[in-house]
């Protein structure tokens, strides 16, 4: 049952129980007054159009107060007990804590004071006085507890991405620190060596360029292995504390409900209302034992267990509750039926739907049948009143059963949702770790490999006395700044790459490496995501050529077909006897193609290796 529906069902049961009040009334003139008292609580529980509750909460509380105490003024001791609890529940919901609890305490004091002034609804006074406070407290904490817990569960449902986002940000921060202490530190060393080469003599230039190349290769190795060196996922904590608030709130409300019912049960035994049977000392002890056992069994059934596991031996403990709920009836009459609420709540918690609702209805239907046995409590009363009392008792216990079930169910739901949120966060962190590792491998690898190659080329040119060595060193500094920027963007979010820039870089680095490069490209409109992913694919493919091949010729082709765009990279440097083995680079390319709703294929023919990536042609068609 949905959270709001359950709250409505509970409030509906309370309404029926108040309309069929268990105390005698000369007529039904009180009914419209009771209905009016339920208007504002139903409005608040619905969650719709709550603007006035936010703007004029005190005005609406005063309206509820007026209709509540109007009933006392009109009907005196024939007013319906427990209706005032609606005002108490609204105060707890609307007024900020701790003032709400102070005001609730004042209302509880006003409740018993007013009843003492107008006259208690039945005798003896001690039982009646406690009953009016009991029913006031039950309705108040029931309305407050179920409504507040429904709101907390809805907040859990609506903020599942919050914890995941916080966990991802924590992972990014941890990875950023790792990147800064490995790759960024080596890039700083690289830049320092290149600047030294530009400002010192020829002998120092060669040494500094060699050291710059070593720093670039060490940084490239760190980028390739960042997935294994990445810091562990951070501990997933709460972002809003809801999962800590919910169980504590449930425990307090359940304890209050159990204590209120337990004390009322003992009073019904020791100081029964007129017509009831007073328990002897010999029967009171077993009755107290029954009460304690029922409470312990109920708490056992209501306990939250991860994964929705039911308590061991629950059929036996549920059966024990069923037996104990009825065994005392022949001795104590209607006073012993209060624990049917616990039996109904346990049935709803432990039995699978829809059977649970059938059995729950059977428990409530048992009350009219027990009434037909004419217990001493109801002996001699008119049949009309016995029927009215049966409806009152069934709806009261139905509401109490829904309250017990709702509190326990919401507690379980909150626990399950919190587990789901943490699992979602863990999945998000794992995905982010893979994304960072993939982008570090693909995005940084080419730039660092290019710097290493240019350091070798610059050393060769220096040895020849070629003035182009100075230009290559300047270009190394520019590439180092670009790689540093890429490293920062990787740990912040997925970097957006420019395909034109990557094609130009590919031509430059391949030419530097002595590879004759032919590029064929048609003018193709691409959305930003597709362009960035294809740029990353090209970057990774060129990195693989530089690292794993002895290519002297490379062909890059970007064309559009009827329904797809194809990026083909063909080189003649595949080692003899090597197949289309898949390393991290090819796996990353395949993952990127799949993410765009496309595919990747490889083909090895002699010393030629062809890598083809296909993606949807329409902009925005990525998945």
| β-strand number | 5
Percent helix range = over 70%
Morphology call: elongated
Strand arrangement within the widest β-sheet reads 1-2-3-5-4
Quick tags:
70% helix, 22 helices, 623 residues, five-stranded mixed sheet, alpha+beta
A few lines on this structure:
The chain is of the alpha+beta class and about 625 residues long. The protein has helices at about 5-20, 30-35, 40-45, 50-55, 55-75, 85-95, 100-120, 125-160, 160-200, 200-225, 225-230, 240-270, 280-300, 315-325, 330, 340-350, 355-370, 385-465, 470-490, 500-510, 530-550, 585-595; strands at about 515-520, 555-560, 565-570, 600-605, 610-615.
How would you describe this structure to a colleague?
The protein is of the alpha+beta class. It has helices at residues 3-19, 30-37, 39-46, 51-55, 57-75, 84-94, 99-118, 125-158, 160-199, 202-224, 226-229, 242-270, 281-302, 314-327, 329-332, 340-350, 355-372, 383-464, 468-490, 499-512, 528-548, 584-595; strands at residues 516-521, 553-560, 564-571, 599-605, 608-616. The protein has a five-stranded mixed sheet with strand order 1-2-3-5-4, with helices on one face. A hairpin with a 3-residue loop joins strand 2 and strand 3. The chain is elongated, with a radius of gyration of 38 Å.
Task: Write the topology of this structure.
Layout: H1 3-19, H2 30-37, H3 39-46, H4 51-55, H5 57-75, H6 84-94, H7 99-118, H8 125-158, H9 160-199, H10 202-224, H11 226-229, H12 242-270, H13 281-302, H14 314-327, H15 329-332, H16 340-350, H17 355-372, H18 383-464, H19 468-490, H20 499-512, E1 516-521, H21 528-548, E2 553-560, E3 564-571, H22 584-595, E4 599-605, E5 608-616
Parallel strand pairs: 1-2
Antiparallel strand pairs: 2-3, 3-5, 4-5
